[in-house]
């Protein structure tokens, strides 16, 4: 007969293989991309925005290999996305002598920088008086929106 008064705690099994991870997680990876992304001049001039999807492999030493464009938008954005992915360094993993290769994809968003929202107009109004002894006065009205 089974004694149900003693409940054995559930013990989670360890994963056999550990995969390379970016130090700091997704937030650190996003921050790295924002800080190192250089918007291509050709894309700026053409007003190009969009998402570039880059596929790549990460070995057990944390090095990126075989970076390739899965979905691109051109105008120099694809090359910039590949450059960024090549700069990535993942954490090394040790898997009991087993070598691992992580296949991953990364979306890199290209958004045009916002332009200044300051608009202004200057209107001139000249006041001419009937008396010739007083010089002409110019009044400027500046409207900022």
CATH superfamily descriptor of the domain at 25-110? TonB
For the largest beta-sheet, the strand count, sense and barrel status come to: 3 strands, antiparallel
Output the number of helix runs.
3
Question: Mean pLDDT score, rounded?
Answer: 80
Distance between the termini: 84 Å
Report on the architecture of this protein.
The chain is of the alpha+beta class. The protein has a domain at 25-110: TolA/TonB C-terminal domain. Helix content is 20%, strand content 30%. The protein is built from three helices and five strands. It has helices at 25-36, 41-46, 77-87; strands spanning 50-59, 64-71, 101-110, 120-127, 137-144. Strands 2-1-3 form a three-stranded antiparallel sheet, with helices on one face. A two-stranded antiparallel sheet has the order 4-5. A hairpin with a 4-residue loop joins β1 and β2 (64-71). The chain starts with 24 loop residues before the first helix and ends with a strand. 8% of the residues are buried.
């Amino acid at each position: 007969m089974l004694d149900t008064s003693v409940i054995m705690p559930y013990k989670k099994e360890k994963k056999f293989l550990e995969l390379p991870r970016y130090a700091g997680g997704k937030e650190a990876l996003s921050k790295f991309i924002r800080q190192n992304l250089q918007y291509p001049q050709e894309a700026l001039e053409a007003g190009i925005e969009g998402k570039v999807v880059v596929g790549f492999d990460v070995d057990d030493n944390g090095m990126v290999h075989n970076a390739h464009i899965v979905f691109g938008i051109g105008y120099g954005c694809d090359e910039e996305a590949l450059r960024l992915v090549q700069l990535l360094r993942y954490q090394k993993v040790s898997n009991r002598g087993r070598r691992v290769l992580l296949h991953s994809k990364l979306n890199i968003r290209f958004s045009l920088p916002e332009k200044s929202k300051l608009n202004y107009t200057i209107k001139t109004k000249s006041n001419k008086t009937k008396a010739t002894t007083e010089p002409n006065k110019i009044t400027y009205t500046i409207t900022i929106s």
